Each structure stands twice: as structure tokens, then as C-alpha cells.
């Protein structure tokens, strides 16, 4: 395995382009859904970034993913809306997604989570409904802070824990939130509050 990497002169531009491509994918997909009146909510890292940016833009973490919450009954309408914006529906390894063009890989896609359904069978709670969202100043609907924190604490993977820590860092989540969550999720939040640096 070749571990010798040489940085090219275009490294900074490639970094900027990578971030902008994700933002462009997010804008085009949400605008297409808005235009066709398909209910949705932005979730995942972009939703976390939108909330964190309201408090401290310096604490915003970039993400490579675009994740959207849809109702399963709206999937066909979403397919039409997103096809008009150049996205191609695929199901890869059981995950519903919209590839960003014919040559895109699953990394370059809009990933779909279905409202009211468990992402994994072992999860304690299903995903929230798209109505549990609000219009952000960024021009698209974002899951409410409570619903987003609940999703993150339900899945509780390493990146979800980091996102919860981001919320804690800027004061969006604190000790008072343990009283607003189901006991299992409150215990997870308490764990992170007790040891914020992991």
C-alpha cells in the first residue's frame, strides 16, 4: 500500500470544491422538493450544522452527506421532483438514495430516511415525522432541535455522539435536556455531559 502522498498546488481548491458540491446538492434537492410541494426535512450533518451556525459559525462542522427525511407515501412524488433536478433514484444495499447524476457514486447522493420508521430494527425509536421541522434561514426545512437530538441519541454512532457534542459545545444541549428525553436517550446524553471529551 502506497502511503506516500504529495500535496498538489490545487489541494485547497479541491477542499473548497468538496464542501461546495455538498452544499449545491443540498440546495438543488431541497429546492426541487419545495417546488413540487413534497414534505421533507433536512436531517444529519447538514441539519446539525444549520443549528450550530445559529449560535457559533466557527463551530460548524462540514459533512460529506446529504440526508433527507421523507414520508414513504411521498417517495414517488419525490422521485419525479428530484429527477427534474438531475437526480437518479437507486436503492443500494437497502438504502434509498438519489444519485447526483448518472456517473455519481452513493457518496455523491441524497440519502433518504423514512419518517415514522425505524432506521434499524434494534433502534428504540422510529424517525420523527417531517412535520417536526421548521423553515431555516438557509431556505430549506430542518428538523427541530429536539427531534434531531433524539435521532442522534437513538442511533448513537460515533459521528452522532460528535454531533451531540457539537450541540453541547455551543450551549444548545445541556443538563436540562435530560428531563425532555426518554430515559434511555437521557442516559446517553448524560454520559456525554459527564465526559464531553470522550
Brief overview, please?
41% of the residues lie in helices and 15% in strands. With 198 residues, the chain is of the alpha+beta class.
Quick tags:
globular; 198 residues; 7 strands; 5-stranded mixed β-sheet; 15% strand; single chain
Question: Would you kindly provide a written description of the structure presented here, covering whatever features stand out?
Answer:
By secondary structure, the protein is of the alpha+beta class. The chain has a domain at 11-144: Beta Polymerase, domain 2 (2-Layer Sandwich). The protein is built from six helices and seven strands, in the order αβαβαβββββααα. The chain has helices at residues 11-35, 44-55, 75-83, 145-155, 158-169, 183-194; strands at 41-43, 66-70, 88-92, 95-99, 109-114, 133-135, 141-143. It has a five-stranded mixed sheet. A two-stranded antiparallel ribbon has the order 6-7. A hairpin with a 2-residue loop joins strand 3 and strand 4 (95-99). Helix 4 runs antiparallel to helix 5 (158-169). The longest helix has 25 residues, at 11-35. The protein is globular, with a radius of gyration of 18 Å. The mean pLDDT is 94.
Amino acid at each position: 500500500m502506497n502511503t506516500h502522498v504529495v500535496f498538489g498546488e490545487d489541494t485547497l481548491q479541491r477542499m473548497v470544491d468538496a464542501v461546495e458540491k455538498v452544499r449545491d446538492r443540498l440546495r438543488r434537492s431541497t429546492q426541487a422538493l419545495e417546488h413540487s410541494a413534497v414534505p421533507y426535512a433536512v436531517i444529519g450533518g447538514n441539519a446539525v450544522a444549520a443549528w450550530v451556525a445559529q449560535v457559533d459559525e466557527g463551530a460548524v462542522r462540514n459533512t460529506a452527506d446529504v440526508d433527507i427525511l421523507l414520508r414513504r407515501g411521498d417517495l414517488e412524488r419525490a422521485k419525479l421532483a428530484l429527477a427534474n433536478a438531475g437526480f437518479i433514484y437507486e436503492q443500494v444495499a437497502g438504502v434509498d438514495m438519489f444519485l447526483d447524476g448518472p456517473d455519481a457514486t452513493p457518496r455523491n447522493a441524497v440519502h433518504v430516511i423514512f419518517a415514522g420508521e425505524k432506521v434499524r430494527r434494534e433502534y428504540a425509536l422510529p424517525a420523527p415525522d417531517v412535520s417536526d421541522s421548521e423553515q431555516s434561514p438557509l431556505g430549506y426545512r430542518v428538523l427541530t432541535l429536539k427531534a434531531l437530538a433524539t435521532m442522534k441519541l437513538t442511533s448513537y454512532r460515533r459521528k452522532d455522539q460528535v454531533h451531540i457534542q457539537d450541540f453541547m459545545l455551543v450551549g444548545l444541549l445541556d443538563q436540562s435536556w435530560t428531563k425532555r428525553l426518554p430515559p434511555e436517550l437521557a442516559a446517553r446524553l448524560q454520559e456525554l455531559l459527564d465526559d464531553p471529551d470522550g
